Amino acid sequence: MAPHNDIILFHYQFSPFARRVTWYLTLRGIDFAECLQPPYLPREDINVLGVKYRRIPIMSIGRDIYCDTRLILQKLEKKFPNGALGAAQPDQKAVEKLLESWTVDGGIFVRAGQTIPPEMPLLQNPKFMKDREDYTGRSWAQADIRSMRPEALAHVRDGFEFLENGLLADGRKWILKSQHPSLADIEAIWPFHWLRGLKGALPPTLISAEKYPKVYAWIDRFDRAISVARARSPKPVSLKGAEAVKHIIQAEYAEPEGEVDSNDPLPIKKGQDIESWPVDSGFRHHDRGQLVSLTDKEVVLASQSKVGGKEVRIHHPRWNFRTMAVDRGGVKL
To answer: 60 φ, ψ to 5°?
Structure first.
């Protein structure tokens, strides 16, 4: 049974992107259910909802389905404003946004992913390797992984340098000098936290607690804060796929329908058939449906579940997503 707030998170446990959301929910003490997914396609629980978006995590609240962690975190901040983790002051909001861009778009996570040790067991799985080639659009052959790793490590080291001798240089506990971890900490810490826990990813002669003591201490503090928050937070309800799908298609919408901004540069109208998809990764998988709303922050389209034939609304952010009108045959206009 889903919690009273209808939040269901579809993810897998070692997804670094999913941790951004589970950490946020834990720090806030927000009740949620989770529906664990395989680390590679197919993900039938998501497919039967009428969602083609292939990245993890996605979050549903009622029959609204949210894609991309940046949009998910924005929605949670708005839905639960009391005790929000986001910055209040404009200059701090700017830092928070820049850190989001740095880690997600600025190459930090892409380079972090290229440091995965070739000997890692999952990289011996042909299904996983083929899936990641579909996800990234680049080769995951062993020779290519090995050849990219030195360059990637140089970039990751630069990220540790920036944190050690920049943001954390004055000995602050948290990025915005807050009493507790804030959204800015989540935005900055997630790829470095992931790498620290990935055995063999970081050569100790290059990156270690001895070389970057402030960064490693910050990660340790964050882990302790998560442990304390987890101990006092509701335990996530675990749902099987069929249970999650049934709950979603029987639920109401979490948000009003919204409108289409008539001044938007995209020449599309409410009710028009559209496709929407990310352009940085997972770009071969397009969601298609009727345009419900369009703002400067998001595009919302209506799709149909394959079970029950119920309409669901799929939310994509505008940043690094492409939206195009299509005709009934699927040809882009």
So the answer is: -110, 140
For the beta carbon of residue 232, count every other beta carbon within 10 angstroms. 8
Structure tokens at 171: 């000995």
Task: Write the pLDDT tens digit of every residue in 44-74.
Answer: 999 999 999 999 999 999 999 999 999 999 9
Q: What is the pTM of this model?
A: 0.96
Alpha-helix runs per DSSP H in the chain:
16-28, 44-47, 69-79, 90-100, 108-113, 126-136, 142-162, 183-196, 213-232, 241-250
Q: Are β-strands 298-304 and 287-294 bridged in parallel, bridged antiparallel, or unpaired? A: antiparallel
Q: Return all residues near 287 (Cβ < 8 A) that are at least 6 apart.
A: 51, 52, 53, 67, 275, 276, 277, 301, 303, 314, 316
**pLDDT at 327 exceeding the cut of 90:** no
> For strand 64-67 and strand 311-317, is the pairing parallel, antiparallel, or unpaired?
parallel
d(CA 97, CA 95): 5
What's the token pair of residue 333?
């206009």
